[in-house]
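Researcher: Checking consistency across runs. Here is Phenylalanine--tRNA ligase beta subunit again:
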Amino acid sequence: MRVPLSWLREYVEVPAEASADDVLASLVSVGFEEEDVFSFELTGPIVVGQVVEFVEEPQSNGKTIRWCQVDVGPENGGVRGIVCGAGNFFAGDKVVVTLPGAVLPGPFPIAARKTYGHVSDGMIASAKELGLGDEHSGILRLVELGLDPEVGIDAIALLGLDDVAVDINVTPDRGYALSLRGVAREYSHATGAAFRDPGARAFEELEQPTGGFAVAVVDDAPIRGRVGASEFVVRIVRDVDPTRPTPAWMVARLTLAGIRSLGILIDITNYVMLELGNPIHGYDLDTLAGGITVRRAAPGEKLTTLDGKERALHVEDLLITDESGPIGLAGVMGGGTTEMTPSTRNVLIEAAIFDTVTIARTARRHKLPSEASRRFERGVDPLIPFVAARRVADLMVELAGGTLDTATGGALFTEVFLEAIELPKAFVPGLIGVDYTDAEIVAALEKIGCEVEAAGASWTVIPPSWRPDLTDKWTLAEEVARIDGYARIPSELPVPPSGSGFTPAQQGRRRVANALAAAGLVETPSFGFTTDEQNDLHGSATGAHLPSIKLANPLDGQAPFLRRSLIPGLLQVAHRNASRGLTDLALFETGTVFLPEPGVTYGTDTVPAAAVRPDAATLAALDAAIPPQPRHVAVLLTGHRVAKQPGVAAEAFDLADALDAVRTIGSAAGVEITVTQSQRAALHPGRTGVLSAYGTEVGYVGELLPAVAAASDLPGRVVVAELDLDRVLALAGERVVAASLSGYPAATQDVSVVVPSDVAAAEVGAALAEGAGALLEALHLVDDYRGQGLPEGTKSLTFALRFRSADRTLTAAEATDAKLQGVAVAAERFGAKIRE
């Protein structure tokens, strides 16, 4: 909200010496965030001049310039010669002259310079050059603003160009501050300065007619039980002159407030909206067909709004209609058929109160935010429409030459009921942590306009009509803290309750993430949204379609599904980095995936009340309405593990690096993870493995198919791994990660066995380990040979075995015997033979 200081001073005593920064500091102290300071960004000398005479001189480029003699007053050098390219002024006109040394917005410094064969000793300015609007078609003639000032006086002060505006951020719950009335009141709260309420007019003074113009509200489909319009006030002003100029002071204030001047009638409605906070709409009375009815849109109805766009209406949209049909989107934007134009002679003024939810939904549905909807959706003072309508009428009489019709008008309104709030006397000090006295609490509440009445150990508080955000004792407590000053609130951190720290699952997840980061991988959290195709490709082993959860209101319409896998998110991160030249990537993510069960419908239409703690049955129903959400961990490696450097060749990431990452995860979790060759839709056949722990499948590892990698614009090889982290940690249970060390030496043995080529090495290793028994400490595959010297269709697998006993030194015979027992099990299962 931009607030011109000259305007603010009309309603509150702002010291003459107070700067814009001083005003902002005061408003910040009562909870507003400062945004910026705005001014017209020009400096003098800029004076009033009078065109004495001019000579038109055609130029060789086809343009005609005027060589003007302009009187700027004896104190400014008398008559000066100025070259001007505009042709909309006449001899005798008083204009704005920027003399050498002046600086216009841009910045655009003014100097005497030779042009078109003359020395132009200054410049005659247009409204746009002065920052008063976008119109650049000609010179600003002061007579068009209704001004006849003395020659030579300061034009900056004359036009209000010396004013400055402060800009504050108004939060959605404080819509009353989207007005000079509201900001002036808050400045008064902050400084104690006297406040003059522009909305304080007695109803009898307003001379509201009770009939003569038909107004009706017909709402058969209220939202949340609230009708679309609770108040609708109509006033009529006749015989206006829409060609009259908007006064310079009003143009300057509207410009500083961020609103463009659009003619005297529209400027007045905008001015009162900024002044009182009630959006006003004016209609050309002569274009209306009959009375006005406020109703919801019918199916198939359309409306062309003031921006020239035809809009298909929704049945929830609230409309302003006459006998011809829709003439405006209530509280958002008027229609083009009844707008005020330069030919308007009679004006119907509308000031209303519309339902906040209805207006907010309409503005978002049609992507049509406006200054009016911004205020209505936050809540407008229900006691202000009568004052606002009369204020507009008075200004149209004063500035546009109209006549107020005191016999014809109309009004529909419901009684304004402000519900009392019970505030226990001990509540505010207990919540805020400050020892407020009863007198301080009452004074703070009365300062913001509340009516406070003592009732035993509590107060009964009736909030002011302009504060719809004050609904309970908590919001009242916040106001006491705000008005009394946040500086009194102690800056002490609360003492946390005693507890057991992280749960075992939380500790396990943290160990895994820290281990991967320590191994050189970078954690990259991503959004949990993807496409149905990506879910099918990465969320199942076969690529077959599986059910996914689709969001009703997704952030990205192209990715409306919740992810079944973390890999699509890692691919997006890798793609984004590769597009910026970062191609050597080692990434990981821990996060939830969403795995709905086939045939189960998720979601619920029952939402528990926010102010009531749900019981166990309600929580169980909510849990049943969401799909299983296990936490996974995934790894993606692409590019080079070792970059090319002098004397060292580049080494690309491969499947072995992904397996190392898997082993890191298993070690941190406290489980032993084995890999067995398998197949998966998105992964390269022959370079894919299923991961298991204690006989339970926990994930997969492999190299992406080249086509899948290319679809993400990733060059070269991409290896990935994904594990169900919750399952891994559950399998680890209470196992001790660090094992006891034996003090006896190890006995090492190697064995090479010949098995069929289609037998997985992991299965052979598992058979050897099972047969070798408790003495086997470690087993590693060190060679996989296929070729000359072996029967066709077979391969030779060489394993390194390490044996150790906890209570003695093993002999070579004991180690050999354990090894041969393992070979026997492998022979029984796979026909394994020791290679000779």
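Researcher: Does this match what you'd expect to see?
Model: One thing to look at in this run: Residues 411 and 439 are 41 Å apart (CA to CA).
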